[in-house]
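Notes on consecutive records. When two proteins share a document, each keeps its own sequence and its own token line. Never mix them. Below: protein one.
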Amino acid sequence: MPTFDLVIASGSVVDGSGAPAYRADVGVLNGHIEAIGDLSAAQAAERFDASGCIVSPGFIDPHTHSDLPLLVNPEAHSKVRQGVTTEVIGNCGSSPAPILGPYAEEIRTRVTTAYLQPDWRTYGDYLDRLRGVSPSLNVVPLAGHVTLRTAAMGVAQRPPSTEELDRMREHLVEALDAGAFGMSSGLMTPPSSYADTEELVTLAETLHQHDALYFSHIRGEGNTLFRAAAEAIEVGERAGVPVQIAHHKAAFRSNWGRMPQVTQLSEWAVDRGVDVRFDVYPYTAGSAGLTQLLPDWSHEGGRTALLGRLHDAATCSRVREDVLAFGREWDRIYVTTVHTEANKPLEGKTLAEVAEQRRVEPVDALFALLVEEDARAGMLHFIMADSDVEHVLKHPLSMMGSDGSSLAVEGPLSAGRPHPRSYGCFARVLGHYVREKQLLSLEQAVHKMSGAPAQRLGLRRKGLLRYGMDADVAVFDPTTVIDAATYALPHRYAEGFRCVVVNGHVTVRDGEHTGARAGSVLRRQDR
């Protein structure tokens, strides 16, 4: 028997396949699982006592927006501290590259933050930049349709010309050749929302040629939910590519209770041979930019044009009519992030409260806030029913995805009041939905957070605790694991995680980050 780098001893192994837990030690050598069994007599450079704990594969988050945060927070604190060892970036159509062509400045402006200036051009340049910071977890990249379309034709509300579509495909191929696993669409975010189904199918055919995936923030999650889900399935079916529906949900009261019917569309598709899956986060609130509350047409031309419309009285009046026609519940929309010091006290308040404080109508408070914040303010929006969330959580085609980012309780990424899912998604599933509500068995939950997303992404060496697999491991106490992050106090690390191992390196020990940065930026070609 070899001398192991690490033995995780005396734990209950939940291997990620959905099979029942069993008592065993896990031996790690050279970044891989070298043995599982009785290793009590084995020599090891380090031995971690996992008595009373679950030993599982590291969790794979198939839906994140850590593209830029990882460059600032390569330790990925909020994620690895809840057992996440792999993140998929570039979701919802938003990737930070390419920054090329006549509309490069539009993309650069969107990507630039108070703490980061982009210094890359191609998608491959960006991935090299990400590799250069040596993140603490593994990264699976996707190219975003929002960025691809902007690079090709700006923020134009029309079909692309043949030349523009070819340019989109060229940018997509460059990203795929650089290692991207596929493309994501953000069909509620201009200019991705300006694309028709034929454009998406054409790009998906390019994905098919490269054995890549199609991830979709579908075109609507409210009144158009059925048509939107059907469109995502259609794109996959026609192009012959696997489809991942992002954060599958039924939004707004009039649609609550419809998820069993909506997920049946995916079930029927699977029955006829379409490879469709979906991810879900365990919360009833979503989060996005406040600009998402404005009609699609008002975004044409980009941020500068949008702000110009809000400054023009006649056009602003038209925007106002469209916003009011939607029937928003202003007391369920919270301001999460602003950038001006004068508006910092508004973080955590509802738009109804902001309106009352300013003695204006909520829609006018929204417009004023967008103008003051250069259209960069964020929101948290309570739009879902518990019953629908629970239906998707336990559905056999679902897996867990945070829709969050790798944040930290200190530094530039600790600003504002972001959605607590960035800190607590996976811990919440284990603590609230497994232990407290018993909605899922522990084995089912772990499978949805490891084996299932690994299979979806084609990661043959991740997602399972088996001999020869990559040593990505999470060790947690099933009696105490819980999400500490709340909507009011989101910057809190999850509790109950004793040890997290990434590629054989202990990255979290007794709940504290060790500083290890052993993650890899994965390439589709190397799966």
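Protein two starts on the next line and is unrelated to protein one.
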Amino acid sequence: MNLSHYILGQWTPQPGDGIPQYDAVTGEVICTSSSEGLDFAAIADYGRHVGGPALRRMSFQERGRMLKALALYLTDIKEKYYLLSYRTGATRSDSWIDIDGGIGTLFAYASLRRKLPDTPWYVDGEQAKLSREGTFIGHHLMTPKHGVAIHINAFNFPIWGMLEKLAVNLLAGVPAIVKPSELTSFLAEAMVRDIIASGILPEGALQLVCGMGIGILDPVGPQDVVTFTGSAETGRMLKTHPAIIEHAVPFNMEADSLNAAVLGADAVPGTPEFDLFIKEVRREMTVKAGQKCTAIRRAIVPAHLMDAVQEALHHALVQTTIGNPRTEGVRMGALVNRAQADEVKRRVELLSQHSPVVVGNLVEFEVIGADRRKGAFLPPIVLRNDAPFQYRDSHEVEAFGPVCTLMPYLTIEEAVALANMGKGSLVSSIATYDTRTAREYVFGSAAHHGRILILNRDSAKESTGHGSPMPLLVHGGPGRAGGGEEMGGLRGIKHYLQRTAIQGHPTIITAISGVYQQGAQQTEATVHPFSKYFEELEIGETLTTAKHTVTEADIVNFANLSGDHFYAHTDVTALEGTPFTQRVAHGYWVLSKAAGLFVQAKKGPVLLNYGLEECRFTKPVYPGMTIGVRLTVKEKVAQEKRNGEDFRKGIVKWLVDVYDETGETVAIATILTMVRMR
């Protein structure tokens, strides 16, 4: 069977013969893939001119709901992907990381819509005041790029690797061209077929290219983004593509790295941390048969514990059953194909010149439910490098399979030095219950690693482990790991957005951004804004309240009510050497009184107070001063109707400006209310 591409709005069979993709267990050919003859310029233009405008017309809220709908749709049919995933050599639990992990990332990014506005763009950071009188300000606007995201993915996670990137670029409003690995694209193609059939994504938002993809980067331009996951060598080659250099195309690279796990000196045998370390190394060696870019390649342990760790790893790994992932009891499947298994063997032979194999045997091992001669099976292999500062192969050569090298250290400084000798990694971890050890390791090695896991008994129950990138945290690392960042929550979408500084009068910046800027023209409310429905409220609409003259009784009563008897509010004899000249009103009394001034008591469209986003007290308020409030509609974010609700609503952000009799602001805050829609 030849795989097809989804390009230019239709499924297109590949021409002629292609690269074979093999069943990792039986060695049988599953399909072939080829990208020869594809017009990559036309494919890129289709994404830019069809998918891009469709996505940019959608707000972040709409794009987030689109991701949620897609995640729900794929969840309902995910079992079909598990059946196919067995053919990559993955066990059921391996496939859970790939399939459910990928769908889970869609859910995670769908939820991030709640932190974004109901517009296709958003305002980033705080207003910059550029003039004395406030008539000239600056801000940063984040808008979707007008290009395409080209994702070149690795073979080990054909679904997660695709979805964890798509979730981000689709939420940002940028279409994608996905080029999965030519070794396992049969699984990615199966899911893309379902995604396209669902009709959830607008046309042009997703295109799929199977095969080698030679020439896919030739048409990239200044509005495009390229991401790559795979070997550091291939990544460096792609990063220097002439078109990428000429057009300064953002290139996000996530490469395989020599990740390290460190055993703290306090984590001796018998402690929970020792057991957790052994469990984590074993898991990272055997999950996906060690074919993970985050797998532990170097286990760095106190010199006096080398033998104990070696023995414990041997005991843990010999219990690992290897074989057909469909067979009951099998805990580790096969590598992706025989060629990859042969490459791992070659790397082990290279490493073993200075680091002998102490656990496992590449020649003699048992396979359950399959023919070892046909499948791509290898056993877990532990090597031992007793002189890691002298023999540096362990820090330079990676065997991308179930292989790890054990090495000793004498001090925490040596452990840091060894971990950093990997020249940059995606993740490092340390198992310790000693706070000082953890602190010294983190600050000594953080610059060399994209993520650091501190594993101990307190976090073990809920820890996702050394090798699990999380959607809300960055996935990437410096140096050998590629220097890129993926996911990372809202940070990730900024890779697909252009940050533009906009300057002008607050009124025009308000009109452009959809967010009220201090100093902008205000429209005085003719009726109380709390009596208006969500759709009726306009940005800049302002209620100017009645005023209140502050008394000492106000301060005393609030102190008694709240229990806040801080000396500045209650003891006028203690004010010497403070910023205050007399008894000062509580900041929270000022805010509470402001609410009393602007709130409309009778029932209306406002459903509840949703929270306080920011608040500053800028000037002391003393008895005898008179305060008033300007309540301004700052921003509006629509929300979808949830199951069981009989109404639609949105979140309204209000700028609360509390000022005194001189007109000077004494407190300023942003509050949120939930407001019913019609």
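For the record: The chain is about 30% helix and 25% strand.
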